[in-house]
Amino acid sequence: MGLIFVFFFFQNRGCSWLPGNRVKNTLLGRLIVVSDATEATMNERGLNEEDIIAVLNDGDVDFEGSEKEGESKVYIIEREGVSYAFTMPYESFISEVFIDAKKGDISPSIEGTGDIIRFPVDENLVFPDSSDIMICQQDSLDLEDPKEILRLLKKDGRIDFAKSDLSERPKPLQYLVFTLEGKEIGAKAIWYKNKLNIISFEGENVPLCPE
Fold first, then answer.
1. Type and span of the H or E element at 27
2. Alpha-carbon distance 76 to 60, whole Å?
3. Which tens digits make up the pLDDT trace of 139-184?
């Protein structure tokens, strides 16, 4: 009786053991990304980033319409008559959002770029690699503090789909881009123990370091 009371009183809010909330909490543990194409669709529909965050808080997961099997899962979540599709590629730290896409028609973008509209709540999310080249690059760019890297990513970070490779094994490779003192910096990164593990900085604005 107590469980029934909690379910109806809170209408499933805060009950992490419910299947729908487990899905949404898993998605909230990743970087939520919106491609340029999806952003154009959102503008046409009068939707914004707040709508995406809202659906992850109180939307309804359509398990029947979702792709729950395989390495590249896709979950459909509905709110106020709009269906949002969230990708969950194998071992990837991103979840890309699509609007009103149908089961079987969704695959992660492989070209263009996307805005990162939400980061997991973790001030220690960024974990740079301990390799000599990474240490050298951090020192050259004055980015020894991982929290500063996270701050820059939150400021204007984007993902470059064309330079990312979700088929890479043992871990998919994602390519992030941010601005440092007016210059574009690229970063190769993987998902490791729920941390954004940056392997190396990339691009013409990154000083050369011996390998």
1. helix 19-28
2. 8
3. 999 999 999 999 999 999 999 999 999 999 999 999 999 999 999 9
pTM reported for the whole predicted model: 0.89
Going by C-alpha positions, the residue among 185, 187, 154 that lies closest to residue 173 is 187
Q: Which long-range contacts (CB under 8 A, 24 or more apart) does 182-185 make?
A: 185/141, 185/152
Q: Say if residue 148 is in the same domain as residue 198.
A: yes
Domain that holds residue 32: 2-118
Question: Quick check: 176 and 33 in contact, CB under 8 A?
Answer: no
For residue 137, what is the enclosing H or E element? helix 132-141
Which of 99, 118, 137 is a domain's end point? 118
Using an 8 Å Cβ cutoff, are 195 and 176 in contact?
no
